[in-house]
Amino acid sequence: MICTVQVPPPFFEWPADEIRRVGRRVVDLVADHITRLRDRPVFQPVPPQLAQELLGDGVPQQGQSADAILDRFASEIGAYPFGNGHPRFYGWVNSPPAVIAVLTDALAAAMNPSVAGGNHAAVWIERQVIGWFKQIVGFPNDSMGLFVSGASAAAVTALSVARHSACAKRGWDVRADGLQSGTGGTLPRLRIYKGAESHGCHQKAVELLGLGASSIRVVPSSGALEMRAEALDAMLREDIARGDIPMAVIASAGTVNTGVIDPLAAIADICERHDVWLHVDAAYGGPALLTQEYEAPLGPMGRADSIAIDPHKWMYVPVDAGIVLVRDAAAMRNTSAVVVPAPSDRILAFWIAGPSAIGSVKGIPSSITSAPAAGKPLRIASEVS
Ligand SMILES: Cc1ncc(COP(=O)(O)O)c(C=O)c1O
């Protein structure tokens, strides 16, 4: 039998001239958006009629030309931004667009790598950037890290390693036996400690990991809204005496509401004394470690077991770009690896270190090495804004 295969027309094969023509239109839209934002109101809601039209649009039955798509972007999407980027969009955690990151995001998309592993450039870039962050926070060379979608995903990843480690130490294989094996009171209760001001993503992470929100103990705050270290110590003593397993303490290096930094050195001492995992949420406060003023209060985050940092906040990288760092690389692998690669491949295999099989590098490296401090020393005086 002879099979004939119909080759479809090359819709996806754009001639170089057409890529350049449409690309220039996109660059014009980017330039107009970024340079003209200041002349517009800070925020304009999407008009109800347009919102209805967007919701009412069924699945498109016809393709559209690139020009029609860009025209529609200009009138229906670019016209109603979130507001960040406007000079009067004051001090919220969503950073304005950084031009170099906007442009390099296009380069990353053009290459479109899966950063699961393998010897291609994006894998080395992720290694390199994770290495920079390890240096910035003072983590050892042999620690591990991953690009994730943000501090929420970082919390799930880090706490999964904390859960694995706390259970493994007690001979409880949580990957094989799950948490259900605790039913019937044969296994002790895992406990998580966090400040009253900590971000809501931590409760979500605890719930997603099957630990139950009731395993969280909220440590009271001082008048300055910092976690009270002596109260944490008392809670840990009480729970250990009862036979519970303190799984992790979550401290904030810049709380979402007020930017307060928990007393990280005192908390790290307590965690060390009780042998409890310390996760530091440095989602947006972390980069302040690069200023002289905040070196002292934020420096002790280098003693943590895991850290979440969001380059998509104070580092001006387009969302979503988060980083999770875990001191104990072996524990991270033991938590997630399904197929263990040969030792020679380990340096390139990110897929064994976290829940996701792939990652993406996006514009992270360019924003960090370029705007706004190109050519400046790493540690900057805090008056530089
Ligand atoms: C202190 C803090 N932690 C965690 C998060 C959650 O981060 P993401 O939205 O990147 O998951 C935020 C977000 O604003 C935050 O400010």
Approximately how much beta-strand content do the residues carry?
5-15%
CATH architecture of the largest domain: 3-Layer(aba) Sandwich
Strand line-up across the major sheet:
1-7-6-5-4-2-3
What series of H and E elements makes up the topology? Answer: HHHHHEHHEHEHEHEHEEHH
Assigned CATH superfamily of the largest domain: Type I PLP-dependent aspartate aminotransferase-like (Major domain)
Q: What is the fold-level CATH name, i.e. the topology of the largest domain?
A: Aspartate Aminotransferase, domain 2
In total, the number of domains comes to: 2
Query: What is the CATH level 1 assignment of the largest domain?
Result: Alpha Beta
Discrete helix count? 13
* Average pLDDT for all residues: 87
In helices, the fraction of residues equals: 25-40%
- Write out the distinct hetero groups bound to the structure: pyridoxal-5'-phosphate
Q: What can be said about the biggest beta sheet?
A: 7 strands, mixed
Radius of gyration: 24 Å
